[in-house]
Structures are given as C-alpha cells and as structure tokens.
Design brief:
By secondary structure, this protein is α+β, with helices and mostly antiparallel strands. The protein has helices spanning about 5-30, 40-60, 70-75, 80-100, 115-140, 150-165, 220-225, 240-250; strands at about 180-185, 190-195, 205, 215-220, 235. The protein has two domains: about 5-140, Four Helix Bundle (Hemerythrin (Met), subunit A) (Up-down Bundle); about 170-250, SCP2 sterol-binding domain (Nonspecific Lipid-transfer Protein, Chain A, 2-Layer Sandwich). One of its GO terms (cellular component) is plasma membrane.
C-alpha cells in the first residue's frame, strides 16, 4: 500500500483540512449536530479530531504513556474546544516536520509505509474527512462532491488507503457468506481496484480482476466521499444489497 503523494503534500493537506474543519465548526456552532455523524455534535467532532492529532503526535514522539481518555476529557473541558483543536494540529504539523524519515513508530494498516509517511498520510485523510463532517454541520445536510474542495489526486490516494489498507484487515466487518467482487473505478484519474468480499478478510487487487458483481464509479472525489460514507455521489451498478452492506459494514470507528 504505497503512499502516492509526497510527504510535503500530506502535511499541506493536513494543514489546509484542519483550517477548513476549524472554520466550518465555527460557522456551524459547537452545539450543532453533524449530519454525517448523527450521534455527534460539533464539539464531539472537534474534540475527537483534536484527540486523534495528539495521539498521532505521541506515536511519532515515542510517547508510550499518552492517555487518549485524558486527552479527550481535556478537550471536552476546554473553554474553547476549537482553539484546543488548533493547538494540537499545530503541534502535530511541527512534529511531522521534525521527525526523521527513518524514525520508528507504531503503525496499524496493512502494508503501511514508513511511520513518518504513514502518520502524515493517515492524518491528512482523517482530517480531510472530518472537515467534510464539519462542513455537513455548517450546511445542515450531507455534502456533495462539489461542496467539498478536495483535489482528485488526494481523493485517489485516500481511496487506495481505504481499499488496500483498512478494509483488508482481519478486524474489518465487511464479510459475505456469498462471495462477490466490487470494481471501484475512478473515471477522472484512471485508477481501478477490485475488492473481493467473502467470509474471509477482504482481498483488494489494484486494477481490474475478473468480471465484477457490482461497479462503483465516478470521479475520485465522488468515490472518496461515497466509500467513506460521507456522500451518495458515486454511480453504483449491480445489486442494491451490496451498497447497503458497504454502508453498514465499513464504518471506521475510534476505539
């Protein structure tokens, strides 16, 4: 699962998406609900992302004693959770700049890149997706691809991380007693992935592999948002049950 963008691109995306999340959170207000994460308020969203940024920073710094529960409680108690979030983002960006390329740190996806690149990539996509959540709170609805200002190359990289890194893990819940294959096709960037779903862990092949039972297609941004369950912009061909199963079995949860 190689990282397709340069480290500097991931850090720039992290910074840009963090600012977008902050601005949308301020526009929506801390008590607003988040349509794409219906159990959350904007406060929950901001503190969650701030906690994850501090967790990522701790990994890069080798801080094995970092307590995410205490970090989350600190954010919830902060007089200004958005400022608390911004401080954690700044520290993460500074840490990524200061971390050497050969630094050792824990990673958690299949076939992950080296730790510095892994955490820059992971937090770029994490923060981008949660900036979309904040945007949904400001809009009061699920966003569309045109609402979110996301570059196609970043979106294609995020699809690859999801399909090749997240869902093939043994802990993934995407399973089916009757095997099937999904072809994911990005029409603007030219990327394709074949996702084989069965009772065993998902197997993702980069490129086309045999005749698919369902095809998810669209621009990279449409697919990025749809596959992360933040929009309904992709064109889905095949049994509707496959999309329904994707929606119910592929949420990425903090835990």
């Amino acid at each position: 699962m190689p990282a397709h963008l340069a480290l500097e691109d991931y850090v720039a995306t992290l910074t840009k998406s963090g600012a977008a999340l902050r601005d949308a959170a301020n526009d929506a207000g801390l008590r607003a609900t988040v349509p794409t994460c219906p159990d959350w308020t904007v406060t929950d969203l901001v503190v969650h992302q701030g906690t994850v940024h501090r967790w990522a920073t701790a990994h890069l710094r080798g801080d094995s004693d970092h307590d995410t529960t205490a970090s989350h409680a600190e954010g919830m108690a902060a007089p200004d959770p958005v400022s608390w979030f911004s401080a954690g983002l700044d520290t993460l960006v500074e840490t990524l700049h200061a971390t050497p390329d050969d630094a050792e740190a824990a990673v958690f996806l299949r076939d992950a890149p080296p730790p510095r690149r892994f955490w820059a990539r992971r937090q770029a996509h994490e923060t981008t997706m949660h900036s979309v959540d904040a945007l949904s709170a400001a809009l009061g609805r699920w966003p569309t691809h045109s609402d979110a200002k996301i570059a196609p190359d970043l979106a294609a990289d995020g699809i690859d991380e999801l399909l090749c890194g997240f869902i093939p893990r043994g802990k993934s819940r995407l399973r089916s007693a009757e095997p099937y294959t999904i072809l994911v096709r990005s029409d603007d960037t030219g990327h394709t992935w074949s996702v084989r779903v069965s009772q065993d862990p998902v197997v993702t092949t980069v490129g086309e592999s045999g005749a698919p039972d369902s095809t998810f297609s669209g621009t990279a941004v449409q697919l990025y948002l749809t596959l992360w369950n933040r929009a309904d912009d992709a064109v889905v061909e095949g049994p509707t049950a496959i999309l329904e199963q994707w929606r119910s079995q592929t949420p990425i949860n903090w835990g």
